[in-house]
Amino acid sequence: MRTVEVIEPGMYTTVQDAGRAGYLRYGLPPSGAMDRRAFEIANALVGNSPEAAVLECTGTMPVLEFSRAVSGAVVYADHFQFLEVSAGERKKFQTLETGYRAYIAVAGGFDTPPVMGSRSTYVPGKLGGFEGRPLRAGDVLSLANVDGASSSVENEGAAFISLANGAGSSVYARVIPGPEADWFDCGGLNTFLTEAFYVSSKSDRTGIRLEGAPLSFRHEAQLVSSGIAMGTIQVPPSGQPIVMMADHPTTGGYPRIGNVVRDDLPILAQLRPGDDVRFVEAG
Amino acid sequence: MQTRIDLNADLGELDDGLLDAAIMPFISSCNIACGAHAGSFETMRRTVCLAKVHRVAIGAHPGYPDPENFGRISMEFQTVELCRLIRNQILLLKQIAEAEGVSLAHVKLHGALYNDLAFDYNRSLAVAETIAAINPELRFIVFSGSETARAAEDAGLVAVHEVFADRAYTEDGKLRPRSEPGAVLHHDADCLQQAARFLSGASGFIADSICVHGDNPSAIEFVSKLRNFFADRKIEVEPAGDLVPSFEQLGESSLLAQLPQRISKSTHRKIRALQLALEGAEGITEMVPCYAELKIDFDPSVISFSDLKNRIQSVEISLADFPEPRVVEVPVLYDGEDLSQVAEHNGLTKDEVIGQHCEPTYLIYMLGFSPGFAYMGGLNSNLSTPRLETPRTSVPAGAVGIAGNQTGIYPVESPGGWNIIGRTPLKLFYPTSEAPFLFEPGDEVRFFPISEEEFHAHG
Q1: What are phi and psi of B267, to 5 degrees?
Q2: Dihedral of the alpha carbons of B179, B180, B186, B192, in degrees to the nearest 10
Q3: CA angle at residue A237 from A233 to A242, to 5 degrees?
């Protein structure tokens, strides 16, 4: 059996795939990779099916030891690398220089037991992935078997795939106005679409918590618990927006000022604490 | 900000119909006196015809049989007798309306009868059931937030919450008695300001319908001002309670079918009925019923937002075919660390808390917040207890708690600020099981007490 042992887990590394479908009405979040585009590219590079499970690495990279020779790929926010490891090799990965999340795919995928149709880890529910938690040193994960050698690995190198707008500059995310956008006053909406917001260190896979000039409401109406999707921007009474991400609760009671468009969600997923982001209305 | 409002007026109360004719163009619903506190065959027929011409919704306005006092003084009746009186008045107007080729849309109680029942749940329920037996599609115009409203919903009717632009309210949500100073707002500007507050949602009252008066010329002048005020703010004046969804977008692949914001059984039934009717439809990937909206996730490569919207609008929904809810019996060992606190807060013994917690049948409006967590309605207000000031860092799965006027069960171990009164051995969320969730939206729940031995026998 092909296995991989975790030597150093990295800051926060979890098994993720395309997510868990069909249980939103029961309150179960979709989970899955935060940066769907990087996840899909990673699987495509190694010739995996689009649903194969990968490792999502957050903040810092893990150190892994592979029992057998494996080919794979690592996709960062702005570039990727192919991976060829020999049997018994202890593999260190290039550190995250831009962006906050990288995806390690191996041919065949990581083979943790599927739970409710997915291998994605949902840590608050302690389910999926490896024992429902982030990886720790000493964990041993199975890799799925592949028939024959993967043939997709031909070009070594690091072609830029430009997943984020690049380091140092302000990033923009396009937003479709939400059902409660008219609950905000002109000043609030103006602030939302002009000012920069900073990523709080309290951000996680549930949501990117932003800090900035508080968004002001037109009136103090209350919302009964209503639906949330990935990318929904909720604004609690503090006026500090939260972009709901892969582990988002399925419902919530804060006004929904807008929704980040699907193609720009990877940008949010790649923000580090302290980075800033601006929103523009999707045209 | 709501964009629709009903304007209702009590008519057919005077022999001379001139004032009725003057106000009719401005309102969307009229409540016609049925011969008990006022009105005759002649006034009923005449008002029905007038409403028909102006396309105003027709409602019965039953009152106490006391024309001398115009139904404004309380009268003692056995509940059965009261229901019979009300039923006869509604049936009479129904017959007259149908003879003129129009149907009865709603019922609103009159004067002292309206006030006497507003905070009497049991008698309101008996009256609401009487109305539902005549026709469950009849709307019941009731004092906003009252016990009559709750009873109407429990009887399967749509409660239309009524507010008053020209009356001052007390802190606890009642009308300030006319005997007190400032009970009536005399200036039109004050009344318009109060109407605006109702529509903004800032008042805390549900405002489906505003009661206006047509018994003197200056009142009619005010109604015409009110119409202009609404027209300026693009607020449609139309009868309430038909529960037709409006549509919103939540990103590129979610559509929200929304009803007016509230937690009510009629809204819930409509949302669930829409969900059931759309189950399996092409292009729909998942649906999440919430209190006042159905979130519909779709695949934009299969169906567009506007095609999906048209599809939903073409769905025929009959509340009559709504399935009987499943009842889930939940055993609880009532040994929670906050049980005595809940008892003390509400001036009850622990046994009384347990008894009152087990008494109602709770309705699961929706699931959300965390996997398998059920938003349940129906807690006896006697048990209402504020959240803990300092939430606990860890509450075990299965803990049964009370927070505000909600009761709930923790499906997974998590931090939480609810007052814990007990624990159930049932698993609300069991990921590796064939049926991972104990509850479905729309289920009914009943709690029953068990002993420590029974609790462990379950495990």
Answers
A1: -65, -45
A2: -120
A3: 25
**B212-B260-B405-B331 Cα dihedral, nearest 10 degrees:** 140
Q: Among A142, A163, A181, identify where a domain stops.
A: A142
Contact B370/A at CB under 8 A: yes
Burial degree of B306 (CB within 10 A; 0-12, 13-18, 19+): exposed
Query: Does residue B54 sit in the same domain as residue B141?
Result: yes
Boundaries of domain holding B277: 246-321
B443 touches chain A (CB under 8 A): no
- Residue A44 Cα, gap to closest chain B Cα (Å): 21
At residue B140, what are phi and psi to the nearest 5 degrees? -120, 110
Instruction: Give the residue from chain B lying closest to A252, CA to CA.
Output: B369
Domain range for A137 is 3-142
Nearest to B111 by CA among B67, B79, B174: B67
Q: Is A260's Cβ below 8 Å from some Cβ in B?
A: yes
Q: How far apart are CA A213 and CA A55, in angstroms?
A: 36
Say which CATH number the domain at B286 has. Answer: 3.30.1360.40
3-state secondary structure of B448: strand
Q: What is the pLDDT along chain A (283 residues), one digit of tens a residue?
A: 899 999 999 999 999 999 999 999 999 999 999 999 999 999 999 999 999 999 999 999 999 999 999 999 999 998 999 999 999 999 999 999 889 999 999 999 999 999 999 999 999 999 999 999 999 999 999 999 876 444 444 444 444 444 444 445 578 999 999 999 999 999 999 999 999 999 999 999 999 999 999 999 987 777 899 999 999 999 999 999 999 999 999 999 999 999 999 999 999 999 999 999 999 999 8
Burial B254-269 (b: 16+ CB within 10 A, else e): bbbbbbbbbbbbbbbb
